Amino acid sequence: MKTYLPKVDEIERKWVLVDAQDQVLGRLATRIADTLRGKNKPVFTPHLDCGDFVVVINADKVRMTGRKSEDKLYQNYSGYMGGRKVYTAKEVREKKPCRIIEEAVWGMLPKGRLGRQQFRKLKVYAGEDHPHAAQTPEQVEF
């Protein structure tokens, strides 16, 4: 008996809509990463991109447990000496609320070409509105 490997053109991709309002960040990011990789499908193959497109709305209303909003740090590094800037999660939520979810999901995806390909299928928006209504995303509760 041979192992079944899906062909690239046989893989079906859906659009999934996730509302991040009052969801715990880590648990939400885990579910999103699994959907991007395709782990929720019976044809999952670790070395192929089998996942679906994920649209996340209300990223600014995601919940962090404990004192993470004061203690968790995000950093930017320009490449120059003294070019490292460190921000708390509270500051990042005010400036770029989408970055919180994007970085949490990126940390859960494989690194390299495959992970970057899967990460491109993630679309995160701070508010209710998103430009992907034409794809008719299916609302999913996590």
Key structural traits:
5 helices; 28% helix; 6 strands; two-stranded antiparallel ribbon; 142 residues; alpha/beta; 18% strand; Ribosomal Protein L13p, Chain: A; globular; 4-stranded parallel beta sheet
Distance between the termini: 36 Å
What structural class is derived from the secondary structure elements? alpha/beta
Helical run tally: 5
Shape label? globular
Portion in strands:
15-25%
The major beta sheet can be summarized as: 4 strands, parallel
Rg estimate, integer Å: 17 Å
Please, could you describe this protein's structure?
With 142 residues, the protein is an alpha/beta fold. It has a domain at 14-64 and 96-132: Ribosomal Protein L13p, Chain: A (Alpha-Beta Complex), CATH 3.90.1180. It is 28% helix and 18% strand. The chain is built from five helices and six strands, in the order E-H-E-H-E-E-H-H-H-E-E. It has helices at 25-37, 68-71, 89-95, 98-106, 113-119; strands at residues 15-19, 53-57, 73-77, 84-88, 122-124, 138-140. Strands 5-2-1-6 form a four-stranded parallel beta sheet, covered by helices on one side. Helix 1 links the parallel strand 1 (15-19) and strand 2 (53-57). Helix 1 packs across helix 4. The chain is globular. The N and C termini lie far apart (36 Å). The model has no long low-confidence stretch (mean pLDDT 96).
